[in-house]
Design brief:
Elements: H1 9-14, E1 16-17, H2 18-24, H3 30-38, E2 42-44, E3 47-48, E4 55-56, E5 63-65, E6 68-70, E7 78-83, H4 100-105, H5 108-114, E8 118-120, E9 127-134, H6 137-144, E10 152-159, H7 165-172, E11 174-176, E12 179-181, E13 185-192, E14 195-202, H8 209-216, E15 221-229, E16 232-233, E17 242-244, H9 247-256
Parallel strand pairs: 9-15
Antiparallel strand pairs: 1-4, 2-3, 2-5, 5-6, 7-9, 7-17, 8-9, 10-14, 10-15, 11-12, 13-14, 15-16
Helix pairs in contact: 2-3
């Protein structure tokens, strides 16, 4: 069933009732949305709204529920991709190598909705895991900008048994050729004969930074997977699969970059 067209002219100027907008966005049923409004849990353009008759323009209004921004526009798309190893983080490749764009082109319904998608940051060819795709330029720009320090979580299989002091060294900072880098957190996940599994959380987005860090402390990476960006987690999503982010995940990304 197709969506009804948005109101035009004078009807458009009047806007849409807030509880209807929240229900349409999947936040709650209209009745439950009214309860959220009455409880003072909904803000429009920075102001708490309690009246039921409030009308807004979904294309321009900024709405938060319990402090998390709600995505209202039908034409904005937010996706999580589990990038397989060996695939380029590009939307096309002039040499015909496998790339993220190949997977997106298979999802014509996403392209019809989004128009044009781009990847937020990148993973190198030998790294797999979570890659975000969107057509929201402002959010994408902020997620990639180092000043917002969005956390990225990686799990790495490395050579050798990792001694206890490695975590401390990485948290204190390692001097690389392009400057010092510190990890936010580090833990040993598992220890295998001749190999170890470690998890680290980092704010940096420099090229090959995780591989360079672990190589610098004497534990070259054999396999690297990005498992989370902020509160968006890869979970059990299979390689090559794309899924839409839910409202909570989109809201958490907005919050992480101050939108």
């Amino acid at each position: 069933m197709s969506r009804p067209s948005r109101p035009t002219s004078s009807a458009q100027a009047e806007g849409v009732r807030l509880q209807k907008v929240l229900a349409r966005a999947g936040v709650a049923s209209r009745r439950a949305a009214e309860e959220l409004i009455a409880a003072g849990r909904v803000a429009v353009d920075g102001e708490i709204v309690r009246e039921m008759g409030r009308r807004i323009d979904p294309d321009t209004a900024v709405v938060h529920v319990d402090g998390s921004r709600i995505q209202l526009r039908d034409d904005q798309v937010y996706l999580a991709l589990n990038k397989p190893v060996g695939m380029l983080s590009t939307m096309s490749d002039d040499k015909g190598r496998p790339c993220v764009g190949d997977l997106v082109m298979q999802r014509t319904e996403l392209l019809n909705q989004a128009g044009r998608l781009f990847h937020v940051g990148r993973l190198d060819q030998d790294t797999e895991g979570l890659l975000l795709l969107t057509n929201d330029g402002e959010l994408g720009h902020r997620l990639m900008h180092p000043s917002y320090e969005v956390e990225k979580t990686y799990v790495a299989e490395v050579l050798g048994q990792v001694p206890r002091d490695v975590g401390r060294r990485l948290r204190e900072g390692i001097e690389l050729e392009d400057g010092p880098v510190r990890v936010h957190s580090f833990r040993l996940v598992d220890s295998l004969p001749g190999r170890s599994m470690v998890e680290l959380v980092i704010h940096e987005g420099r090229k090959h930074v995780v591989r360079r860090l672990l190589d610098e402390v004497g534990h070259p990476v054999q396999r690297l997977v990005r498992t989370a960006i902020g509160e968006v987690r890869l979970g059990d999503q299979r390689p090559g699969k794309i899924r839409p982010l839910n409202q909570h995940e989109v809201g958490s990304l907005y919050k992480a970059v101050g939108l």
